[in-house]
Design a protein that fits this description.
The complex is a heterodimer of chains A (about 425) and B (about 375). Chain A is mainly alpha-helical and about 425 residues long. Chain A has 19 helices and 2 strands. Classes of the chains: A mainly alpha (about 425), B alpha+beta (about 375).
Amino acid sequence: MANAALDPHAAIATTASGVETGRLTTADGKPLARALARSQRRARRRAFLLVLPLLAFILITFVVPIGQMLQRSFYNDGFSANMPEVSAWFARTERGTPPDEEAWTALAADLTASAEARTIGVVGTRINYDLSGSRSLFTSTGRQVRRGIEPPYDRALQEIDEKWADPQLWSTMREASIPVTANFYLAAVDRQRDAEGNIRQVEERQQVYVMLFGRTFWLSAVITALTFVLGFPIAHLLATLPMRRSNLLMILVLLPFWTSLLVRTTSWMVLLQQQGVVNDILVWLGIIGGGQRLQMIYNQTGTIIAMTHILLPFMILPLYSVMRTINPSYVRAARSLGATSWTAFRRIYFPQTLPGLGAGAMLVFILAVGYYITPALVGGASGQLISNMIAMHMTDTLNWSMAAALAAILLAAVLVLYWLYDRLVGVDNLKLG
Amino acid sequence: MLDNRRGDTFVAFEHVQKSYDGQTLVVKDLNLSIAKGEFVTMLGPSGSGKTTCLMMLAGFETATHGEIRLDGRPINQVPPHKRGIGMVFQNYALFPHMTVGENLSFPLEVRGMGKSERESRVKRALDMVQMGSFINRRPAQLSGGQQQRIALARALVFDPELVLMDEPLGALDKQLREHMQFEIKHLHEELGITVVYVTHDQGEALTMSDRIAVFNDGRIQQLAPPAALYEAPENSFVANFIGENNALPGMIEQLQGDKALVRLDGGGVIDATAVNIREVGQRTTVSIRPERVEFKPEMMPQGAHTIEAKVVEVIYMGDILRARLSVAGSDNFVMKMRNTIGQTRLAPGQQIRIGWHPQDARALDPV
């Protein structure tokens, strides 16, 4: 280090690194590390007590319910807990074994017990997830067996409903007899098990989830790109305008942000519908004829427009916070070094905004992937996203396990993207504001 | 009026005015010509217009009125990247996302220079500031002094004839700042470049410059080499701004050529050199440097007027003794004495008579 002599800072750095590291002790011979920990213990305990209420709140209201919900995606004991004997028979026999005398007896006993305990609906619902139309089979059979059932049970049950002989039903029941199952995940990627237990695609007209996942990620990417294109100049303007005018502009950016999501979505419905303001103006200007009014809502276009508008502040704010810290002298330096204003922007300014761009893109993308209300209101059929499907399973079909599996896949995909982002850009470069 | 000691004018400001808001002038009628190879410092308090002048020269601000010429060519309409002026910024402005080497290579790349030529030039520029081994570091990994050197190398790597420096040493500690002053001075001499340097630190200006332009209130108050500026200030602002100064208010009693007799407001008559006063009876402020004040009669010229002074305190400062005196009704008159073996030690409360050579007391405009 020939330069060290010339630079006092460098000189200090070299002497500091020359200190020998060994086990240090306090004056009375205790290890230094332990003495330090002890001296800070009180402060640390107090700090922990201060965050304890929040920690408890999050654990009780957030982590535990979400954990339980995710558990439903691979654990459902709706069948196995209420049908113990037939589940035991399934456990004893090989896959594909046709139901024997023992099996029918177990089934009849379980159905009777379950009907008495009024849990037959739960059992039916569980089987119905994998084989639609089965719920009514279980409930109606339940009503019949409570009135009494005589052996031979195979004949008796098939007399009640001949579907009991269906090998597909027995295969499905065998699957459901084990509470831990990957079937919900298989269904979430349009796969199912056939009677032999092989995984195969569901019928073409029933394949929706993979397409919906694809559409969700594609639309989210489009929306992220649009917010970037629209938000970057605004953020730059905000960061460079004089304080008073930039504050005014900031209020204009934040005002929609503070407005209710529903209000904003419905105002887009007013603006974009076929008899809406935008179409009226286009017709009035003569750009389109009265009979060719554009379909801009209740389809993907509507979802894209409304979500871009709603998510725009999430792109602008991180970009703004990064741009504000970029000293204008960098661009000036580049200009004085001979760069045109475009080169100075491309080589010097833009790279320095990347932490904000990364943060904004992550925020917008992750929010868009899970967006629900806006696509539900303005998306029509072609603008529905996977979150709408999750909501449907939560509220309409009551297949919570399916909803949980879809949500878990979504969560995993977002975490993978986050990991990729960390690998490529580095999360410590993220600047959220 | 303008001093062109080293040949032709290289940079010229002609009647330049600058206003940001259309109401007030930040720069009022600036005339300045700088010769090739000269080191000119713009010195002044903040808000005096010095940085605005530098920014107009660099092309980041446009002159509201007047013309700026570089090597005879008017540059008012030339964008900054075509002026070919190297610039060192106050905060160095090293691009944080590039290594030292990439930072230095940037001006060469935008000029379309080939890779091997770029590499050899970057290496040469880094060696010039003794930073050759830092080529792959990032600016954040460097100390303030090292960043300063890289910024200097980057401003010089494309061989500009004119380099502007905007308070480049402001963020460094005192020791390093003094060291860098010499280094910049040596580079200037070695490369024969023209330097326009902006600072508010008068010590820096005195050490480095060929000429100093003292700015205040949008005007150049005085443009002179360091010694002339310190010893012969032309007005009270310059006298007070450069170095330590005793200011005695009074009125002209006699005027004979440039010899003046001043009656002080607090009593007493002193000799002074008339600088910017014209007539008897005019108010004036007499400026005297503390180290030129004498209290031993044998050190004063024959027949010099002396005035009463009472020692208020004496501060021992090592190389000098600094005495605060009560003179003509004010307690803030400072006298500096060299700490030699035979030096008379004054005590607080002591009554003395002080005087000076008439050319050291300059009768300037009233403050």
